[in-house]
Structure prediction request, 187 residues.
Amino acid sequence: MENATPPVRLEPWSEEDAGLLRALNAPELTAHLGGPETEEQLARRHRRYVDLSAADPGAGRMFRIVLLPEGTPVGSIGFWAQTWDDEPVYETGWAVLPGFQGRGVATAATRAVIAEARAAGAKGVGNAAEGRRHLHAFPSSDNTASNAVCRKAGFRPRGERDFEYPPGRLMRCNDWRLDLGPSAQEA
Prediction:
């Protein structure tokens, strides 16, 4: 059991988070994702994040990760509706600023986003049109840290797959899946 995990709070992504997104666009944080985005790409991403956080929770949510008790924004995490292998699922992804990595922040935030995705998907679990029974993460196969987060947060590996990210670029990733159903809730 990990008692040293720092407490974090997830706060909905807002207009004020553009600077955080810019800081998360650093080469060392985007090396496994095709590199930093242009200002225009960042502006579009920021708008998507803000819009997702204002939409119906069933569509997903983006959050800034806030480290407690300081209240310092240290990263981003979210979940969004996706179709994978013909199944309606949620996908998740995260980034933590370099000065806060290696302290369990991403794992704590991932556990918190699992609860958010579970609540959003629970209203339709079992309903093929709306229910999203699984949460997937697709870290690059060579991203040791993100693959460790998936394992620590309770995801199960499903093997390596080719995944298109960013659009137009195939990357080799691990497909991690977590069951959001009521019988799968962590103790």
Notes: The radius of gyration is 16 Å. Residues 125-129 have pLDDT under 50 and may be disordered. The longest helix spans residues 105-122. The CA atoms of residues 118 and 132 lie 9 Å apart.
